Amino acid sequence: MVTSAQERVITVAELSRLLKHAIEGVTGSEWVEGEVASFKRAASGHVYFSLRDEREDASVDCVMYRLEAQRARGILTDGARVQLLGRPTLWAPRGRLQFAAMRCRPAGRGALLEALQRLRQRLASEGLFAEARKRPLPARMRILGVVTSAHGAAFQDICAVAFRRGGVRIVLSPALVQGEGAPESIVRAMDLLERYPGVQALIVGRGGGSSDELMAFNDERVVRRIAAYAVPVISAVGHDVDFTLADLVADVRAATPSQAAELVIADNQARVELLSGLLRQLTMAMRARIGDDRARLQKMRNSMSDPRFVIVERQMALDDLRLRAERQIRRHLSRWRLAVQGLSGRVSAQHPRVVVARARTRLDPLKLRLRAAGTRRFELAKGQLADRASRLEALSPLAVLARGYALVTDEAGRAVRRATDVAPGDRLEVRVARGRLRARVVEAKEDLR
Fold first, then answer.
1. In the chain, count of helices (H) and strands (E)?
2. Counted domains in the chain
3. What pTM does this model have?
4. Cα separation of 422 and 175, whole Å?
């Protein structure tokens, strides 16, 4: 092909550099706000994601390099609404326009993340995520149901594990695992598989992906269908960074489809090896036990002599024990006899006749002393009585009357001490030493002395 001298042909790399200079020349560092989607972290530590405007149909690819990504850890997540400081640039190897972010700050929760969080809280309040409703996996798996894409790697991984471990029939109910119709397809596939006879457990999942690709497993219809399923369900979405709602409601959560198959399908070869090892250990233990018993039996046999000598030895030991027992009995009888004699002497000393005689001997002197003391006490009291009688006699009004005095009382029995205590005509009683007199007052005259 011939070109004129005026035409200038450039390479793709030159074109990329021109575009890069043009983009970076007319733009600078900008703060951009949007919702994070398709977040991925590379092995190098760089993170790649899309920043989209949920109000308009617009998005831009973004990159944040390792050091900046470490600072933004926890802020950059799928569905989060963030503000990024960076500048647009062109990545020459792919000719892709991207926004190189240098700083990140939260700008509120994204609409998708908000809706997902509300759904999660509502389902949790209904108890769908409670550990109490989790069911154990069957111990011996014969028929395993799988709901996943028929053409994805997830089903191939499950079949590879089942083929390696053996003894399990895999029944696939194919379904879409991403896109608009994925939730309905997954629910329909689960319905079909539930009617298959003999299915003991179900694996639902896919081979990983971005958060957008996993949204079917956050759908409320899928979550409720897993919760109501007739057999235990293993969630194998294959996304180790975040949990989907299907992971939370499932009876068991596996990181990958292969791990899900390993959890539910027993390893027959491992069982055979385990049983073989246990059989070897049992055989060795039995042989060791038999060897020990044989050695012990031989030792006992060698230690045993003629049974007659053993009997004679036992008889001699028995005779010795009999003699010792007799000596002990005689010794105890002698001690008991002495004790009985001592007790008999003490009992005889305490015989009632002896006690009464001793008491009578002590009582006779006491009787004489009591009689003498009584006599002395009586004489003393007699003298005291005579003295007090004479003193009382001296104080008696009768003694005064015997000397010629009289005691005059009125009709009320009151003693008359003054002439003014009575009036003419009053009746009086006069008591003399021997007898009483009744008198009437003729005149009452008081002595003025």
1. 12, 13
2. 5
3. 0.45
4. 148
